[in-house]
Amino acid sequence: MYASFRSIGAYVPSEIRTNQWFIDRMDTTDEWITKRTGINQRRIASKEQLSSDLGVEAAKIAIDRAGIKCDEIDLVLCATISPDYMCMPSTACLIADKLGISDVMAFDISAACTGFIYALSVAKAFVESGMKKNVLIIGAEKLSSIVDYTDRTTCMLFGDGAGAAIISATDNINEAIIDVRCSADGSQKDLLMTPGVESGEKQFMQMKGNETFKIAVRTLTNDVIKILEKNNMSNDDIDLFIPHQANYRIIKAVGDALEFRDEQKVLTVDKYGNTSSASIPMAINDCYESGRLKLGDTMLLDAFGGGLTWGSAIVKFAAK
Ligand code: UT7
Fold this sequence. Notes:
The structure is a single chain. By secondary structure, this protein is of the alpha/beta class. It has one domain: Peroxisomal Thiolase, Chain A, domain 1. It has helices at 19-23, 30-37, 51-66, 91-99, 115-128, 209-230, 248-257, 269-272, 279-289, and strands at 2-11, 15-18, 41-44, 75-79, 105-109, 134-142, 160-170, 179-184, 192-193, 206-207, 240-243, 298-305, 309-316. Strand 4 (75-79), helix 4 (91-99) and strand 5 (105-109) form a beta-alpha-beta unit. Helix 6 (209-230) packs parallel to helix 7. It starts with a strand and ends with a strand. 51% of the residues are buried. The protein binds oxa(dethia)-CoA. Oxa(dethia)-CoA (UT7) binds next to helix 2, helix 6 and strand 12.
């Protein structure tokens, strides 16, 4: 039994927050934000919309496109660092409930910006072991709820949104997810973190941006080299290189180091900012909806985030 990537869906809230919003409120410029990050705008959820609400909308599209019914889903995984509730109940439980999916395992994955690739890895393992047939994986973030809007060095980076996919069992090897590799290093916990409840600090994201930037470029690049080598593949076997959308300069540096052509590189950070675990499925969905991603295409996913965590995946797009 193999695991196949059956469908993709995404949802973004309607409010667009441009760079001007930050210029009006703090000591920054459009030139600084666009030159240092490549970000022009991000989406911001309303007060009432929580991560589970964003995730539900993305999930409905992915389920519909997979041509299955909610009662055929036997596992729900949600990657998020901005859950509706602190620790419990999990956002996956809330999403399952809102979709009317009951009596199946549902849990969250906390791997920051690598969360969607972690979820993909877990879904693949459950499907390949024969334990589950249709897994709903979601990356859903309301990062605006954990951003410190007095910290000009981080607040303009992040946005809200969600992406979802259905991972299903198949006996056709040509549809199979080729490989997923994930790693972590907790010794670098201080680079990107939200303080704990006992710390006395507010639960806002904190990042040592410049240090993180350098490690991100190195790690993202090395990870792709490793996964391609392990699978005896080269750049030419990849149709779309879809990295985590944190910063245009990171994506460019990694893409150039790996010698991907422009038509292979996917860039959405300009319009959504960094949406952590949602950034990769949102980018896949953009490619799908614009006709850039087609049945049978091979995607190379690559992410890095707080933990530290990092991971990459080589995935055939096996839409029905
Ligand atoms: O998603 C998970 C992984 N995340 C990442 O990988 C993000 C990694 N980091 C980054 O994207 C970048 O480090 C940032 C965009 C956050 C910052 O860019 P940078 O080139 O690393 O800038 P920097 O932190 O070295 O700051 C350069 C200067 C500083 O001034 P001085 O000390 O050179 O006088 C900052 O105070 O830019 C200043 N600065 C700003 N200036 C205008 C910092 N924030 C701003 C701002 N507007 N918003």
